[in-house]
Amino acid sequence: MAPLLQVENLTIGFPRAEPVRNLSFEVAEGETLAIVGESGSGKSLTALALMQLLPRAARVSSGRITFDEQDLLTLDASQMRRLRGREIGMIFQEPMTSLNPVMTIGRQISEVLKVHEKLSGRAARARAIELLNLVRIPGADKRVDDYPHQLSGGMRQRVMIAMAVACRPKLLIADEPTTALDVTIQAQVLDLLDTLRRELQMAVVLITHDLGVVAQWADRVVVMYAGRKVEQALPDDLFKDPLHPYTRGLLAASPRLKNDFHYRDGALTEIPGSIVSAVGEAGCPFRPRCTQARASCGHHIPPLTVPAPDRLVACPFTSSIKAVPDAVALRY
Amino acid sequence: MPALVRIVRTLRRTLLQAIPTLLGIIILNFFLLQLAPGDAADVLAGEAGSATEESVAALRARFGLDSPVLEQLATYLNNLAHFSLGFSPRYGMPVADLIAQRLPGTLTLMAVALIIAIFLGVILGSLMATFAGRIPDRLLSVFSLLFYSIPSFWIGLMLIVFFSVKLGWLPSGGSGTIGSRLTGWAALLDAARYMVLPATSLALFYVAIYARLTRASMLEVKNQDFVRTAYAKGLTPFGVTARHVLRNALIPITTMAGMHIGGMLGGAVVVETVYSWPGLGRLAFEAVMGRDFTVLLGILLLSSLLVILANAAVDLVHAWLDPRIGAR
Amino acid sequence: MSTTGVGALRNISSAYASATESEQPTAVVATEGPAWSNVKAPDARSQQSATIAITNGRRALKVFFANPNALFGTGFLCLVIAVALLAPVFFPDDPLSMVGRPFLWPGQDPAFPLGTDSLGRDVLAGILHGSRISLFVGLTATALGLTFGVLVGAASGYFGGWVDDILMRLVEIFQTLPSFVLLVVLVAIAQPSATTVTLAIAVISWPTVARLTRAEFRAIREKDFVMAARSLGFGHGRIIFREILPNALPPIIVTSSVMVATAILMESALSFMGLGDPNVVSWGSMIGTGRELVRTAWYLTALPGLAIVFTVLALNLIGDGLNDALNPRFSGDR
Questions:
Q1: pLDDT in the model for residue B68
Q2: Contact map slice: C 14-53 vs B, CB within 8 A
Q3: Which terminus in chain C has less CB density within 10 A, N or C?
């Protein structure tokens, strides 16, 4: 069976940069795919490209996005609008600013239903209340007339979710859905997403920089660095045995994955340098920050290889790196 | 119900804040006008031509112009408390009546001009924002700056030259065909024909302001996250603009509309003289020329009151447009 | 005819910006406590900010002169200034004196390229001489209004408390009074002359500046370098004029060009209504006298009007250019 979403060799270009290069991945029906990377790695642009909502200056310069057996890049504007909100829902990072401040949440949810399902005002409102119940907002029949500023951040993100799933989309794109929330709320929201995924049989593309989120909620993980996929694996494999030096750095920088780790015990590991240093370099984009870099890394971009079933990695030296203990690998 | 609470709360706050301002304005105006050389009695006497010292003094005594300044102020304040604006010696009628006669003319003119200005301004501004940085935007930007630079009295005269002298389409002055006994639609149409040119002259300057403001405001709103959310829902660009962008962008525009009521009143003074429009502005001008302090005081006070009321109205619209206001 | 024109419109955004800024409690000196052990440091800091201001100024100048609209505005304004200075050289006679046959249309007689009015006065001479009063009133009134407005706004924003309360109450009174009506009243009371017209325009234009300056001062007074200067015991005067004012200048500069434009419009409207200086020819008074003949000799109103429009447009183009150059936040989307 063809995957629900298939992205092939996607390249997104700005006039003077290519923030996403040659990216391929697929999402099966009902599956949660996590895309992980630090800010600037191109993961949010990828999400916007899936919705065809790229900023004006950016455009898809090559590649193919197939969703439900349609090539999204060949659809015209009105065909694409019929997909947005109905077949593909999207949740954004900032619940504070992603809702219209001057419209009640009920109207904002109803709006999707009116556009796609041609519901009457009253029916849409009833459905909006149902949806608010579905996302576990207490007192939904009263809350429906609230304005966004009357809700907490977690509540607003629930409203965003209600909006995104209102038409039972086949695919939900969640762009850093919990980054702006309190840690205690994060798990609740992710739990909700996971429950809804099962109840509504959606596939989810979960975009995050937080490996803790990945460990618990993803079926598969794609790690992006500087606009490229550097590793792909099942979460268990990834955490047990990270292959790419960047993934190893990410894991070491993530405190919550080590049970015995506490902030007081020592400073968090950082990956030296920043993603900016990768721009305009030949060879492996991670080379300037890589503790294991060798001369040959500067020659060409390492291709993705298949070191094990269900895995992909873009580093030719993974077997030798594995021999180096974590602590050494991350010293800089 | 929360909307109503919000609005009432906003209204109360606005009006409470206005009281000291209003008092300040009354006192300031009064003392300002005391500084003026000559008074109404002088002017009346001058116009009568055969004035003697005694008759002028009699006139002064009659209108209380010879009492000490503070006493005059007290009298004035006392009258105000009884909703009386005093008596105009020059026109021979109470100032309140005089103003009441002229006020509707000015209010209609201003209202029509404001509607034209906001309507055209918002449309032009939306167009500019849609084509931001491209040719239509650049052209409209220059045009709006041009409108902003044209004195209203001059464009008024030019419109008269073009539309009533050269083309003969529209009347060049007045507020209605004299002696006509039109009723219903015909009367309204007649009034509208007289209204077009003055209202356009007054509006043009504000069209420019609202266009520029709408442009800036829409560009700012367009970059906000909730607009992207709206697109992600599958709304059409028009739907996004009409339902999400415009309402948010209108919030600063209402603020500006309120701030411009005073300015528009000033503009009306000039435009009314161009079109011999029987309104408050022209009355103010006549009062200045005739040194009729009572009338002037009344007009200044009333127009300030008008500004305060307009601001209160704007606050209300604001509270209605923006649910975050008044919640605090 | 309003002082709260495009200037206020531009400033509203910066006022919003500074309002949000002032709401956030700024991290103050405490975080950098140890760094100030060196007594010279604050001076170094303010010098540093001064050099930044200068380089920013240079960058702004570059942006300004790369803008064709602003260049056109500047060029035209220079022309008007040159004309105003040279008018007595070209037309040494009083422009109010009769020199030719009345009602000559433009181009009819090469001796009077722009024609003559009903009394046989040279229209071109009138327009050239008229630029003098327009510029004089516009520039002087703006200078006065700016000075007073900046002083009031600075005091209000810097000291806050009851000073702020009282001054803002005053500003509010002036902003509630319809400014042109007030202007008419002031000029009528004081008897029209170039001086009274200038003073009256200054009186109605200062509140806008005061409000703007206050907003800037409130935002800037919380900044680290001001805190540092204060902790070193610098006097209020020094902090206000040497530390804060230079940083508050950009929006004030933008406003000033619009103020000149507005003042010129106000002056012309007053003269049009017969409230200008009766002894000096001005564009507004030319329109005012031409008005009676608008049906037959419309060029008498059209020509001086064009002079006003282009001069004011030039100033507004300059204001726009300055705004783009000094306010990078909004120049991106132009």
A1: 72
A2: none
A3: C
ipTM: 0.82
- Cβ of residue A79 closer than 8 Å to a chain B Cβ: no
**Tens digits of per-residue pLDDT, B210-243?**
888 888 888 888 888 888 888 888 888 888 888 8
Element (H, E) at A66: strand A59-67
Closest Cα of chain C to B4: distance in Å?
Answer: 27
Closest CA to A276 of A57, A40, A46: A40
CATH code reported for the domain at A5-223: 3.40.50.300
Inter-chain touch A99–B229, beta carbons under 8 Å? yes
B280-290 vs B246-274: helix crossing angle, rounded to 10? 40
Query: Is B228 in Cβ contact with A99 (below 8 Å)?
Result: no
CA atoms within 13 A on the CB side of B122: 19
pLDDT digits (tens, 9 = 90+) for B81-91: 776 777 777 77
Angstroms from C43 CA to nearest CA on chain B: 38
Q: pLDDT tens, C163-191?
A: 888 888 888 888 888 888 888 888 877 78
Residue B39 has pLDDT above 80, yes or no: no
User: What percent of chain C lies above the pLDDT cut of 70?
Assistant: 76
B57: three-class secondary structure by DSSP? helix
b vs e for A68-79, b when ≥16 Cβ sit within 10 Å of the residue's Cβ?
A: beeebeebeeee
Residue spans of the domains in chain A: they are 5-223, 242-330
**Residues B234, A115: C-beta atoms closer than 8 Å:** yes
Nearest by CB to residue B266, choosing from C180, C186, C316, is C180
Please tell me which residue of chain B has the smallest CA distance to A167.
B233
Domains and CATH numbers, chain B: 2-95 (no CATH), 100-321 (1.10.3720.10)
**Tokens for C242?**
């040497």
pLDDT of B121-163, one tens digit each?
989 988 888 887 788 888 888 888 888 888 888 888 888 888 7
